[in-house]
Amino acid sequence: MEYVNPLTGLRIDGRRPTEMRHLKAQIGVVSKADGSALFEMGNTRVIAAVYGPREVQNRGQQMNNNEALVRCEYSMANFSTGDRARKPKGDRRSTEISLVIRQTMEACILTKLMPRSQIDIFVQVLQADGGTRSACINAATLALADAGIPMRDIVTSCSAGYLCTMPLLDLNYAEDSAGGPDVTVGILAKMDKVTLLQMDAKLPLDTFETVMQLAIEGCKAIAQYIREIMLQNTKQLECRRGS
Amino acid sequence: METTQMTEGGGGGATGIAAQMEVEAFRRLFPLPFYKRHLLESVRPDARALDYARDTTISLGPVASADGSALVKIGETAMLAAIKLEVMTPSKERPDEGSIVVEFYMPPICSPMVRPGRPAEVAPVISKQLLDVIRSSGMVNLKELCLISGKASWIAYLDIYCLNADGSLFDAALLSAVAAFTHLQIPLVSVTEEGRVFTVSSEQEEKTKFELVNKEKRKLSLSSIPFPLTCVIHEDYILVDPTAEEETVMETSITLVLDTLGNLVSIYKPGGVGLASTEIMKECITRTKRRMQELKTILEESVSVMEVD
User: Fold this and answer.
1) What ipTM describes this predicted complex?
2) B185 within 8 A of B217, measured Cβ to Cβ
3) Do B163 and A29 count as a contact with CB atoms less than 8 A apart?
4) What are B248-275's pLDDT values in tens digits?
5) Chain B residues within an 8 Å CB radius of A57
6) Does residue A73 belong to the interface with chain B, where contact is any CB pair within 8 Å?
7) Alpha-carbon span B31 to B81, nearest angstrom
8) CB-CB: which of B84, B105, B112 is closest to A32?
9) H or E segment at B28?
10) pTM summary value
11) Exoribonuclease phosphorolytic domain location, by residue (chain B) (predicted)?
Protein backbone atom coordinates (compact mmCIF):
# COMPACT_ATOMS: atom_id res chain seq x y z
CA MET A 1 0.00 0.00 0.00
CA GLU A 2 1.34 3.41 -0.90
CA TYR A 3 1.51 5.42 2.24
CA VAL A 4 3.40 8.12 0.42
CA ASN A 5 2.31 8.74 -3.13
CA PRO A 6 5.46 8.61 -5.30
CA LEU A 7 4.11 11.18 -7.76
CA THR A 8 2.83 13.89 -5.48
CA GLY A 9 4.81 13.05 -2.35
CA LEU A 10 1.62 13.32 -0.27
CA ARG A 11 0.33 10.89 2.31
CA ILE A 12 -3.05 9.18 2.25
CA ASP A 13 -4.73 12.05 4.08
CA GLY A 14 -3.12 14.67 1.87
CA ARG A 15 -0.37 15.78 4.26
CA ARG A 16 3.26 16.22 3.39
CA PRO A 17 5.65 13.81 5.16
CA THR A 18 6.82 16.34 7.76
CA GLU A 19 3.44 17.94 8.28
CA MET A 20 1.54 17.46 11.51
CA ARG A 21 -2.20 17.11 11.77
CA HIS A 22 -4.42 20.03 12.63
CA LEU A 23 -4.16 20.88 16.34
CA LYS A 24 -6.98 22.25 18.42
CA ALA A 25 -7.10 22.73 22.18
CA GLN A 26 -9.58 24.10 24.67
CA ILE A 27 -9.02 24.71 28.35
CA GLY A 28 -11.60 24.38 31.07
CA VAL A 29 -14.08 22.00 29.45
CA VAL A 30 -15.02 20.12 32.63
CA SER A 31 -16.26 22.63 35.17
CA LYS A 32 -16.22 20.13 38.04
CA ALA A 33 -12.52 19.43 37.67
CA ASP A 34 -9.77 21.56 39.13
CA GLY A 35 -8.25 21.71 35.68
CA SER A 36 -9.29 20.24 32.36
CA ALA A 37 -8.52 20.42 28.68
CA LEU A 38 -9.71 19.04 25.37
CA PHE A 39 -6.94 18.30 22.88
CA GLU A 40 -7.39 17.32 19.24
CA MET A 41 -4.72 16.10 16.83
CA GLY A 42 -6.54 15.59 13.55
CA ASN A 43 -9.31 13.11 14.32
CA THR A 44 -7.89 12.03 17.67
CA ARG A 45 -9.85 13.75 20.42
CA VAL A 46 -8.99 13.46 24.07
CA ILE A 47 -10.26 15.07 27.31
CA ALA A 48 -7.97 15.33 30.34
CA ALA A 49 -9.21 16.29 33.79
CA VAL A 50 -7.01 16.98 36.80
CA TYR A 51 -8.21 16.77 40.40
CA GLY A 52 -5.78 17.96 42.97
CA PRO A 53 -3.87 18.53 45.01
CA ARG A 54 -6.27 16.81 47.37
CA GLU A 55 -6.17 14.45 50.30
CA VAL A 56 -4.65 11.04 49.69
CA GLN A 57 -7.41 8.47 49.42
CA ASN A 58 -5.51 5.29 49.85
CA ARG A 59 -2.97 5.55 52.66
CA GLY A 60 -1.40 2.32 51.53
CA GLN A 61 -0.31 3.81 48.24
CA GLN A 62 1.35 6.79 49.81
CA MET A 63 5.00 5.79 49.56
CA ASN A 64 6.77 8.98 50.28
CA ASN A 65 5.65 11.56 52.79
CA ASN A 66 7.71 14.31 51.20
CA GLU A 67 6.12 14.25 47.79
CA ALA A 68 2.71 14.41 46.22
CA LEU A 69 1.31 11.18 44.84
CA VAL A 70 0.49 11.36 41.14
CA ARG A 71 -2.13 8.98 39.77
CA CYS A 72 -3.28 8.59 36.25
CA GLU A 73 -6.01 6.66 34.54
CA TYR A 74 -6.40 6.30 30.79
CA SER A 75 -9.63 5.03 29.33
CA MET A 76 -11.08 4.89 25.84
CA ALA A 77 -14.73 5.41 25.04
CA ASN A 78 -16.46 2.39 23.53
CA PHE A 79 -17.10 4.23 20.30
CA SER A 80 -13.66 5.79 20.00
CA THR A 81 -12.24 3.22 17.62
CA GLY A 82 -13.65 1.76 14.42
CA ASP A 83 -14.96 -1.39 16.09
CA ARG A 84 -16.69 -1.09 19.40
CA ALA A 85 -14.15 -1.90 22.11
CA ARG A 86 -15.16 -4.68 24.45
CA LYS A 87 -13.15 -3.75 27.55
CA PRO A 88 -12.19 -0.12 27.49
CA LYS A 89 -10.48 0.18 30.84
CA GLY A 90 -8.88 -2.76 32.55
CA ASP A 91 -7.03 -4.15 29.56
CA ARG A 92 -3.27 -4.25 29.31
CA ARG A 93 -2.85 -1.47 26.77
CA SER A 94 -4.81 1.00 28.92
CA THR A 95 -2.86 0.06 32.02
CA GLU A 96 0.42 0.49 30.17
CA ILE A 97 -0.52 3.87 28.79
CA SER A 98 -1.75 5.00 32.22
CA LEU A 99 1.64 4.11 33.63
CA VAL A 100 3.47 5.89 30.82
CA ILE A 101 1.47 9.08 31.23
CA ARG A 102 1.88 9.04 35.00
CA GLN A 103 5.62 8.70 34.85
CA THR A 104 5.92 11.32 32.14
CA MET A 105 3.94 13.89 34.11
CA GLU A 106 5.67 12.98 37.37
CA ALA A 107 8.91 14.07 35.77
CA CYS A 108 7.65 17.59 35.36
CA ILE A 109 5.35 18.21 38.34
CA LEU A 110 7.12 19.75 41.33
CA THR A 111 5.85 17.08 43.67
CA LYS A 112 8.07 18.16 46.53
CA LEU A 113 6.01 21.31 46.93
CA MET A 114 2.87 19.37 47.83
CA PRO A 115 3.73 16.65 50.36
CA ARG A 116 1.07 14.28 51.63
CA SER A 117 -1.34 15.11 48.86
CA GLN A 118 -2.57 13.47 45.70
CA ILE A 119 -2.89 14.67 42.15
CA ASP A 120 -5.22 12.70 39.90
CA ILE A 121 -4.94 12.93 36.15
CA PHE A 122 -7.78 11.28 34.24
CA VAL A 123 -7.69 11.00 30.49
CA GLN A 124 -10.65 9.95 28.38
CA VAL A 125 -10.24 9.23 24.69
CA LEU A 126 -13.35 10.22 22.75
CA GLN A 127 -12.03 9.53 19.25
CA ALA A 128 -8.94 7.52 18.43
CA ASP A 129 -7.12 7.93 15.12
CA GLY A 130 -3.51 7.21 16.04
CA GLY A 131 -1.26 9.12 18.42
CA THR A 132 -3.60 8.82 21.40
CA ARG A 133 -0.67 8.54 23.77
CA SER A 134 0.74 11.86 22.57
CA ALA A 135 -2.62 13.60 22.55
CA CYS A 136 -3.18 12.44 26.14
CA ILE A 137 0.12 13.82 27.34
CA ASN A 138 -0.51 17.15 25.63
CA ALA A 139 -4.00 17.34 27.08
CA ALA A 140 -2.67 16.45 30.54
CA THR A 141 -0.11 19.25 30.35
CA LEU A 142 -2.83 21.78 29.57
CA ALA A 143 -5.10 20.42 32.28
CA LEU A 144 -2.32 20.60 34.88
CA ALA A 145 -1.63 24.19 33.86
CA ASP A 146 -5.34 24.97 34.16
CA ALA A 147 -5.38 23.47 37.64
CA GLY A 148 -2.51 25.69 38.66
CA ILE A 149 -0.24 22.80 39.65
CA PRO A 150 3.42 23.90 39.73
CA MET A 151 5.44 22.31 36.96
CA ARG A 152 9.05 22.39 35.92
CA ASP A 153 8.26 22.83 32.25
CA ILE A 154 5.55 21.90 29.80
CA VAL A 155 5.67 18.35 28.48
CA THR A 156 4.68 17.77 24.90
CA SER A 157 4.65 14.60 22.93
CA CYS A 158 4.52 13.59 19.30
CA SER A 159 5.01 10.46 17.25
CA ALA A 160 6.87 9.78 14.04
CA GLY A 161 7.36 6.77 11.84
CA TYR A 162 9.20 5.51 8.81
CA LEU A 163 7.26 4.18 5.82
CA CYS A 164 8.16 3.85 2.12
CA THR A 165 11.68 5.02 2.97
CA MET A 166 10.40 8.34 4.28
CA PRO A 167 10.26 9.61 7.85
CA LEU A 168 6.66 10.63 8.55
CA LEU A 169 5.50 12.95 11.33
CA ASP A 170 2.39 12.35 13.43
CA LEU A 171 1.06 9.03 12.22
CA ASN A 172 -2.65 8.45 12.01
CA TYR A 173 -4.27 5.07 12.66
CA ALA A 174 -3.87 3.74 9.12
CA GLU A 175 -0.17 4.59 8.99
CA ASP A 176 0.39 3.31 12.51
CA SER A 177 -1.10 -0.09 11.75
CA ALA A 178 0.93 -0.41 8.55
CA GLY A 179 3.55 -2.35 10.47
CA GLY A 180 6.35 0.19 10.21
CA PRO A 181 8.19 1.55 13.24
CA ASP A 182 6.46 4.05 15.51
CA VAL A 183 8.59 6.35 17.65
CA THR A 184 6.82 8.33 20.37
CA VAL A 185 8.80 11.09 22.02
CA GLY A 186 7.92 13.29 24.97
CA ILE A 187 10.08 16.28 25.80
CA LEU A 188 10.29 19.05 28.36
CA ALA A 189 9.99 21.89 25.90
CA LYS A 190 12.28 24.63 27.20
CA MET A 191 14.77 22.44 28.96
CA ASP A 192 15.04 20.40 25.76
CA LYS A 193 15.18 17.11 27.60
CA VAL A 194 13.58 13.86 26.57
CA THR A 195 11.33 12.31 29.18
CA LEU A 196 9.45 9.72 27.14
CA LEU A 197 10.85 7.62 24.32
CA GLN A 198 9.14 4.54 23.00
CA MET A 199 9.71 2.63 19.83
CA ASP A 200 8.60 -0.69 18.42
CA ALA A 201 9.64 -2.57 15.26
CA LYS A 202 13.10 -2.56 13.73
CA LEU A 203 14.98 0.51 12.57
CA PRO A 204 18.61 1.00 11.54
CA LEU A 205 20.39 3.38 13.90
CA ASP A 206 20.89 6.35 11.61
CA THR A 207 17.30 6.22 10.41
CA PHE A 208 16.25 6.15 14.02
CA GLU A 209 18.12 9.37 14.68
CA THR A 210 16.37 11.10 11.79
CA VAL A 211 12.97 9.90 12.89
CA MET A 212 13.58 10.90 16.50
CA GLN A 213 14.73 14.35 15.45
CA LEU A 214 11.57 14.72 13.40
CA ALA A 215 9.44 13.76 16.38
CA ILE A 216 11.29 16.26 18.58
CA GLU A 217 10.61 19.00 16.03
CA GLY A 218 6.95 18.01 16.17
CA CYS A 219 7.00 18.25 19.97
CA LYS A 220 8.48 21.72 19.78
CA ALA A 221 5.78 22.83 17.37
CA ILE A 222 3.12 21.50 19.73
CA ALA A 223 4.81 23.30 22.63
CA GLN A 224 4.56 26.53 20.65
CA TYR A 225 0.86 25.95 20.11
CA ILE A 226 0.26 25.04 23.75
CA ARG A 227 1.97 28.23 24.88
CA GLU A 228 -0.31 30.28 22.63
CA ILE A 229 -3.38 28.56 24.03
CA MET A 230 -2.26 29.14 27.61
CA LEU A 231 -1.55 32.77 26.85
CA GLN A 232 -5.01 33.25 25.34
CA ASN A 233 -6.55 31.56 28.34
CA THR A 234 -4.67 33.79 30.76
CA LYS A 235 -5.74 36.88 28.86
CA GLN A 236 -9.35 35.77 29.09
CA LEU A 237 -9.03 35.15 32.82
CA GLU A 238 -7.47 38.56 33.24
CA CYS A 239 -10.34 40.10 31.32
CA ARG A 240 -12.94 38.34 33.46
CA ARG A 241 -11.17 39.33 36.60
CA GLY A 242 -11.54 42.90 35.53
CA SER A 243 -7.98 44.06 35.82
CA MET B 1 -12.11 39.76 44.61
CA GLU B 2 -14.50 41.48 47.00
CA THR B 3 -15.56 39.26 49.88
CA THR B 4 -19.18 39.83 50.76
CA GLN B 5 -19.98 39.57 54.41
CA MET B 6 -23.22 38.02 55.49
CA THR B 7 -24.56 38.75 58.92
CA GLU B 8 -26.09 35.86 60.71
CA GLY B 9 -29.62 37.05 61.37
CA GLY B 10 -32.55 35.26 62.90
CA GLY B 11 -33.34 33.08 59.87
CA GLY B 12 -32.18 29.54 59.28
CA GLY B 13 -30.98 26.93 61.72
CA ALA B 14 -27.44 28.19 62.35
CA THR B 15 -27.31 29.43 65.87
CA GLY B 16 -25.03 32.43 66.20
CA ILE B 17 -21.80 30.53 65.79
CA ALA B 18 -20.31 33.38 63.84
CA ALA B 19 -21.78 36.80 63.73
CA GLN B 20 -20.22 37.55 60.37
CA MET B 21 -19.00 35.07 57.81
CA GLU B 22 -18.00 34.97 54.19
CA VAL B 23 -20.66 33.79 51.77
CA GLU B 24 -18.66 30.86 50.46
CA ALA B 25 -17.90 29.59 53.94
CA PHE B 26 -21.56 29.95 54.94
CA ARG B 27 -22.54 28.04 51.82
CA ARG B 28 -20.29 25.13 52.73
CA LEU B 29 -20.96 25.01 56.44
CA PHE B 30 -24.70 25.63 56.50
CA PRO B 31 -26.05 24.63 53.10
CA LEU B 32 -29.70 24.29 54.08
CA PRO B 33 -30.00 27.75 55.68
CA PHE B 34 -28.12 29.18 52.70
CA TYR B 35 -30.69 27.74 50.33
CA LYS B 36 -33.57 28.67 52.62
CA ARG B 37 -32.54 32.30 52.43
CA HIS B 38 -32.62 32.10 48.65
CA LEU B 39 -35.89 30.18 48.45
CA LEU B 40 -37.65 32.80 50.57
CA GLU B 41 -36.87 35.23 47.74
CA SER B 42 -37.96 32.64 45.12
CA VAL B 43 -34.53 32.55 43.58
CA ARG B 44 -31.54 30.20 43.52
CA PRO B 45 -27.86 30.89 44.06
CA ASP B 46 -27.22 31.02 40.33
CA ALA B 47 -29.99 33.65 39.99
CA ARG B 48 -32.43 31.29 38.32
CA ALA B 49 -36.13 31.31 39.18
CA LEU B 50 -37.38 28.13 40.83
CA ASP B 51 -39.09 26.82 37.72
CA TYR B 52 -36.41 27.66 35.16
CA ALA B 53 -34.18 25.06 33.64
CA ARG B 54 -30.61 25.83 32.63
CA ASP B 55 -29.54 26.58 29.05
CA THR B 56 -29.73 23.40 27.04
CA THR B 57 -27.81 22.78 23.84
CA ILE B 58 -27.83 19.75 21.56
CA SER B 59 -25.20 19.13 18.94
CA LEU B 60 -25.62 16.20 16.54
CA GLY B 61 -22.86 14.11 15.05
CA PRO B 62 -19.78 14.98 17.11
CA VAL B 63 -18.40 11.45 16.86
CA ALA B 64 -17.66 10.81 13.21
CA SER B 65 -16.88 7.12 13.64
CA ALA B 66 -20.26 6.27 15.16
CA ASP B 67 -23.47 5.65 13.23
CA GLY B 68 -25.32 8.21 15.33
CA SER B 69 -24.10 10.53 18.05
CA ALA B 70 -25.05 13.61 20.04
CA LEU B 71 -23.52 15.92 22.62
CA VAL B 72 -25.98 17.45 25.07
CA LYS B 73 -25.25 20.17 27.62
CA ILE B 74 -27.71 21.23 30.29
CA GLY B 75 -25.92 24.07 32.05
CA GLU B 76 -22.56 22.52 32.90
CA THR B 77 -23.71 18.91 32.74
CA ALA B 78 -22.40 17.40 29.52
CA MET B 79 -23.29 13.99 28.04
CA LEU B 80 -21.88 12.37 24.92
CA ALA B 81 -23.98 9.58 23.39
CA ALA B 82 -22.97 7.42 20.47
CA ILE B 83 -24.69 4.53 18.72
CA LYS B 84 -22.85 1.77 16.90
CA LEU B 85 -24.77 -0.77 14.89
CA GLU B 86 -23.69 -4.37 14.55
CA VAL B 87 -25.34 -7.29 12.83
CA MET B 88 -26.65 -10.19 14.88
CA THR B 89 -29.03 -13.11 14.51
CA PRO B 90 -32.38 -12.31 16.06
CA SER B 91 -33.91 -14.55 18.70
CA LYS B 92 -36.35 -17.27 17.73
CA GLU B 93 -39.22 -15.70 19.63
CA ARG B 94 -38.77 -12.39 17.85
CA PRO B 95 -37.35 -13.11 14.43
CA ASP B 96 -38.09 -9.74 12.92
CA GLU B 97 -36.93 -7.44 15.66
CA GLY B 98 -33.55 -5.94 16.42
CA SER B 99 -32.43 -4.92 19.88
CA ILE B 100 -30.96 -2.00 21.79
CA VAL B 101 -28.28 -2.19 24.48
CA VAL B 102 -27.85 0.90 26.64
CA GLU B 103 -24.74 1.54 28.73
CA PHE B 104 -24.13 4.62 30.81
CA TYR B 105 -20.65 5.49 32.02
CA MET B 106 -19.42 8.04 34.50
CA PRO B 107 -15.68 8.19 33.89
CA PRO B 108 -13.49 9.74 36.58
CA ILE B 109 -13.16 12.98 34.63
CA CYS B 110 -16.74 13.95 35.25
CA SER B 111 -16.79 14.51 38.97
CA PRO B 112 -14.53 14.65 42.00
CA MET B 113 -16.74 12.01 43.62
CA VAL B 114 -15.84 9.35 41.07
CA ARG B 115 -12.48 7.66 41.52
CA PRO B 116 -10.90 4.63 39.90
CA GLY B 117 -11.84 1.70 42.08
CA ARG B 118 -14.81 3.54 43.46
CA PRO B 119 -17.32 3.96 40.64
CA ALA B 120 -20.27 6.30 40.99
CA GLU B 121 -23.20 4.74 42.79
CA VAL B 122 -25.66 6.50 40.59
CA ALA B 123 -24.27 5.23 37.25
CA PRO B 124 -25.91 1.77 37.11
CA VAL B 125 -29.15 3.27 38.43
CA ILE B 126 -29.29 5.77 35.59
CA SER B 127 -28.29 3.05 33.15
CA LYS B 128 -31.27 0.94 34.14
CA GLN B 129 -33.62 3.92 34.17
CA LEU B 130 -32.55 4.80 30.64
CA LEU B 131 -33.09 1.30 29.35
CA ASP B 132 -36.51 1.10 30.95
CA VAL B 133 -37.64 4.45 29.59
CA ILE B 134 -36.36 3.81 26.08
CA ARG B 135 -38.05 0.43 25.98
CA SER B 136 -41.35 1.42 27.54
CA SER B 137 -41.75 4.65 25.58
CA GLY B 138 -41.71 2.68 22.35
CA MET B 139 -39.69 5.44 20.74
CA VAL B 140 -37.77 3.00 18.57
CA ASN B 141 -39.78 0.41 16.67
CA LEU B 142 -37.59 -2.66 16.96
CA LYS B 143 -39.03 -4.03 13.73
CA GLU B 144 -37.23 -1.22 11.90
CA LEU B 145 -33.97 -2.72 13.07
CA CYS B 146 -34.63 -5.93 11.19
CA LEU B 147 -32.63 -6.80 8.07
CA ILE B 148 -33.59 -10.29 6.97
CA SER B 149 -36.37 -11.81 9.00
CA GLY B 150 -35.10 -14.69 11.10
CA LYS B 151 -31.50 -14.37 9.88
CA ALA B 152 -30.06 -10.94 10.47
CA SER B 153 -30.99 -7.83 12.38
CA TRP B 154 -29.26 -4.82 13.91
CA ILE B 155 -28.20 -4.56 17.50
CA ALA B 156 -27.75 -0.92 18.47
CA TYR B 157 -25.12 -0.34 21.13
CA LEU B 158 -25.87 2.99 22.75
CA ASP B 159 -23.00 4.25 24.91
CA ILE B 160 -23.50 7.40 26.93
CA TYR B 161 -20.53 9.03 28.61
CA CYS B 162 -20.93 11.71 31.23
CA LEU B 163 -18.25 14.32 30.60
CA ASN B 164 -19.24 16.72 33.37
CA ALA B 165 -21.59 15.86 36.22
CA ASP B 166 -23.44 18.90 37.52
CA GLY B 167 -26.92 17.65 38.35
CA SER B 168 -29.85 16.43 36.22
CA LEU B 169 -27.77 13.56 34.94
CA PHE B 170 -30.73 11.46 33.88
CA ASP B 171 -32.27 14.37 31.96
CA ALA B 172 -29.14 15.01 29.97
CA ALA B 173 -28.55 11.30 29.40
CA LEU B 174 -32.05 10.63 28.07
CA LEU B 175 -31.93 13.73 25.91
CA SER B 176 -28.60 12.68 24.44
CA ALA B 177 -29.97 9.18 23.76
CA VAL B 178 -32.99 10.64 21.99
CA ALA B 179 -30.81 13.01 19.97
CA ALA B 180 -28.42 10.21 19.01
CA PHE B 181 -31.33 8.11 17.74
CA THR B 182 -32.58 11.10 15.77
CA HIS B 183 -29.15 11.44 14.18
CA LEU B 184 -28.73 7.70 13.53
CA GLN B 185 -28.13 6.68 9.92
CA ILE B 186 -28.39 2.98 9.21
CA PRO B 187 -25.56 1.96 6.89
CA LEU B 188 -26.09 0.07 3.65
CA VAL B 189 -25.70 -3.64 3.88
CA SER B 190 -25.20 -6.52 1.51
CA VAL B 191 -25.11 -10.32 1.74
CA THR B 192 -22.48 -12.78 0.52
CA GLU B 193 -23.35 -16.21 -0.88
CA GLU B 194 -22.65 -17.89 2.44
CA GLY B 195 -25.24 -15.68 3.97
CA ARG B 196 -22.82 -13.39 5.80
CA VAL B 197 -24.02 -9.84 6.11
CA PHE B 198 -21.55 -7.00 5.78
CA THR B 199 -21.77 -3.25 5.60
CA VAL B 200 -21.09 -1.42 2.38
CA SER B 201 -19.53 1.99 2.72
CA SER B 202 -20.73 4.85 0.55
CA GLU B 203 -17.59 4.79 -1.66
CA GLN B 204 -18.10 1.16 -2.52
CA GLU B 205 -21.73 1.77 -3.29
CA GLU B 206 -21.24 2.84 -6.89
CA LYS B 207 -18.69 0.20 -7.74
CA THR B 208 -20.45 -2.67 -6.09
CA LYS B 209 -22.22 -5.43 -7.89
CA PHE B 210 -23.58 -6.77 -4.64
CA GLU B 211 -27.22 -6.82 -3.98
CA LEU B 212 -28.02 -4.20 -1.40
CA VAL B 213 -30.44 -5.35 1.22
CA ASN B 214 -31.66 -1.97 2.36
CA LYS B 215 -31.76 0.32 -0.60
CA GLU B 216 -31.37 3.74 0.93
CA LYS B 217 -29.46 4.85 4.06
CA ARG B 218 -32.32 4.89 6.41
CA LYS B 219 -33.18 6.94 9.40
CA LEU B 220 -35.37 5.52 12.12
CA SER B 221 -38.90 6.88 12.32
CA LEU B 222 -39.25 7.79 15.96
CA SER B 223 -42.72 7.96 17.42
CA SER B 224 -43.66 9.35 20.83
CA ILE B 225 -40.26 10.73 21.86
CA PRO B 226 -39.83 10.87 25.66
CA PHE B 227 -38.61 14.07 27.31
CA PRO B 228 -37.54 14.14 30.97
CA LEU B 229 -37.48 16.64 33.79
CA THR B 230 -35.90 16.24 37.20
CA CYS B 231 -37.05 18.39 40.11
CA VAL B 232 -35.99 18.53 43.72
CA ILE B 233 -38.47 19.04 46.51
CA HIS B 234 -37.74 20.90 49.67
CA GLU B 235 -40.70 21.43 51.99
CA ASP B 236 -43.14 23.13 49.65
CA TYR B 237 -40.67 24.38 47.12
CA ILE B 238 -40.11 22.68 43.81
CA LEU B 239 -36.78 23.42 42.17
CA VAL B 240 -36.61 22.48 38.51
CA ASP B 241 -33.39 21.15 36.93
CA PRO B 242 -31.15 21.02 40.00
CA THR B 243 -27.40 21.45 39.99
CA ALA B 244 -25.25 18.84 41.72
CA GLU B 245 -25.07 20.99 44.83
CA GLU B 246 -28.84 21.37 45.00
CA GLU B 247 -29.32 17.63 44.55
CA THR B 248 -26.96 16.82 47.42
CA VAL B 249 -28.39 19.42 49.78
CA MET B 250 -32.08 18.73 49.24
CA GLU B 251 -31.88 14.99 48.79
CA THR B 252 -35.33 14.41 47.35
CA SER B 253 -35.62 14.34 43.62
CA ILE B 254 -38.45 13.37 41.31
CA THR B 255 -37.89 12.55 37.68
CA LEU B 256 -40.85 12.64 35.31
CA VAL B 257 -40.80 11.59 31.69
CA LEU B 258 -43.52 12.64 29.27
CA ASP B 259 -43.74 11.77 25.61
CA THR B 260 -44.77 13.93 22.69
CA LEU B 261 -48.25 12.41 22.62
CA GLY B 262 -48.82 13.68 26.15
CA ASN B 263 -48.56 10.33 27.93
CA LEU B 264 -46.73 9.90 31.18
CA VAL B 265 -43.92 7.44 30.48
CA SER B 266 -42.14 7.25 33.80
CA ILE B 267 -42.24 8.61 37.34
CA TYR B 268 -39.21 8.06 39.52
CA LYS B 269 -39.09 9.21 43.10
CA PRO B 270 -36.63 7.04 44.99
CA GLY B 271 -37.53 7.83 48.59
CA GLY B 272 -36.07 10.92 50.19
CA VAL B 273 -36.92 13.20 53.08
CA GLY B 274 -39.39 15.35 51.17
CA LEU B 275 -42.88 14.00 50.68
CA ALA B 276 -44.78 14.62 47.47
CA SER B 277 -48.46 15.35 47.85
CA THR B 278 -50.82 15.20 44.87
CA GLU B 279 -50.55 18.97 44.40
CA ILE B 280 -46.81 18.76 44.15
CA MET B 281 -47.05 15.92 41.66
CA LYS B 282 -49.47 17.93 39.54
CA GLU B 283 -47.15 20.94 39.68
CA CYS B 284 -44.25 18.78 38.56
CA ILE B 285 -46.28 17.40 35.68
CA THR B 286 -47.14 20.94 34.51
CA ARG B 287 -43.48 21.92 34.68
CA THR B 288 -42.52 18.81 32.73
CA LYS B 289 -45.03 19.63 30.02
CA ARG B 290 -43.53 23.07 29.59
CA ARG B 291 -40.02 21.69 29.56
CA MET B 292 -41.05 19.13 26.98
CA GLN B 293 -42.10 21.89 24.59
CA GLU B 294 -38.78 23.66 25.13
CA LEU B 295 -36.77 20.51 24.52
CA LYS B 296 -38.80 19.58 21.47
CA THR B 297 -38.03 22.97 19.91
CA ILE B 298 -34.34 22.68 20.74
CA LEU B 299 -34.16 19.19 19.25
CA GLU B 300 -35.94 20.22 16.08
CA GLU B 301 -33.63 23.22 15.69
CA SER B 302 -30.53 21.10 16.04
CA VAL B 303 -31.85 18.63 13.46
CA SER B 304 -32.51 21.41 10.96
CA VAL B 305 -29.07 22.92 11.60
CA MET B 306 -27.53 19.56 10.83
CA GLU B 307 -29.52 19.11 7.68
CA VAL B 308 -28.46 22.50 6.39
CA ASP B 309 -24.87 21.32 6.69
Assistant:
1) 0.84
2) yes
3) yes
4) 888 789 999 999 888 999 999 988 887 8
5) 115
6) yes
7) 33
8) B112
9) helix B23-29
10) 0.86
11) 54-187, 225-286
